[in-house]
Give the backbone structure.
Amino acid sequence: MPTNQTTASSLLADLAPDLRTALQRVRYDSDSLLEALGDEAHAALWRSEPVPVRRAARDAGELGTLIRLLLLGDAMPEREVAAALAPVDTDRAVAAGLLERDGGDIRPALDLRPLDLGDGTRWVLSDLDDSMRRRTLDTDHVLGVGQASLSLLRATPTRPVGTVLDLGTGCGVQAIHAKSYGQTVTGTDLNRRALWLAEATAALNGLDIELRQGSWYEPVAGRRFDQVVANPPFVVGPARVEHTYRDSGLAMDGASELVISGMPAMLNPGGTAALLASWVHVAGQDWRARVSSWLPDQGVDAWIVQRDIADPALYVGTWLRDAGLDPREPQAQERAERWLQAFTEAGVDGIGFGVVYLRDIDGPTEILAEDLTHHFEEPLGNEASRYFERSAWLRAVATDPDLVLATRFEVDPVSALERVYLPGMDGWEQQVARLHRGDGPLWQHEVDDTTAALLAGMRPDGLPLSELVELLAFSETGGAATPEFESAVLGVVVGLVRHGLIHPR
């Protein structure tokens, strides 16, 4: 990091307009990279295999020069770099901390890569990682667009809002994404180097983002926002800080607890939050109860989604490699021993990872914590917005079952009924019936024949639920629906509405 933070920040920000001109001129964007490299070399880039990429880039002109320089970290002749980055002056780029000299050649001092966030190409500046060259990461290392960042980008609701907070902004990737749906965006971080790079990233993309330094919620104390996004240092382990982008200094899942418990106080009325988090699985304790206990009793609608559960040994090995360490080296083995011992002492037998969605509401807190560990392609961001809409409708009718009974429902067009049969003594015997949602999180609900018959009546020209219930009761018992039968139907309907398998009309 340059010794004079203010000067370096100003130099890099001042360089941004010329650098943006160069990147646009050379077409240093996601689509052009794929076109220049081809499918095989492009795939090799994401596998951290430099040779196929280097071979493909040799014939790509000035774009190839930037690919080799900025994505592979190759030392390149200064005249080639100067031509590819024109009108950027090489001396200015070195002074600003973007490039560095290596004899007569030029190397990158920072990672600079294009990213399509769905609203056109953005460029993101971060520290060099070890994807193409082995290197040990410094304590204040600023991570680029990794898998966690991409997960949060896909998980973030993007309906237009007024104010957005990016808590723990890092290189600023969530903040620049937020400018596509938020009128004003504020990013915070404890790491001064992160704010330096976030400021440069914002300037490079011509975006106005407020940046504040400080720990957790301190930089925005007393303020509230329409939406908050957070990719905090959620790595679970002993209380220590080896890398600020992942380690909080809090033991086990203390960082996730701190962020989740403090988030409701940051939301405007009706405001929402989307954050990544991790939590420990302890023998004899339900993870749902653990995470739910971090939320207040009033004012929150929460959807907590567990996407993965990691074995402690696999978890430690993954994060050691993330820091550029080889688990076979003595130093890494010592860290792994301490880490796993801390898990043993805390009774940890697994580490859950997922997304937490919160919405400010007026009334008692409502929480749905569930596993979504199966594979699905569609991002959760838009689904979260729809989930809160469905939850609000259910909340509005919760105290008056007659409102639900008076409602007409329709099965979602992408919902499908599956029946599974296995051979038996008398031929095919049904084992299970499931209602599948064909989009979004691909939810499944096991249903019985009574529920299947109920759903068959939920058509665009169908009857109110009360009439369907009476018809169903008569077909099964020859009499009127009992309160118990009616209550059971209402319970099924609530679950199917919450997951978007049926909709009120």
Observations:
- The first helix runs from residue 5 to 26.
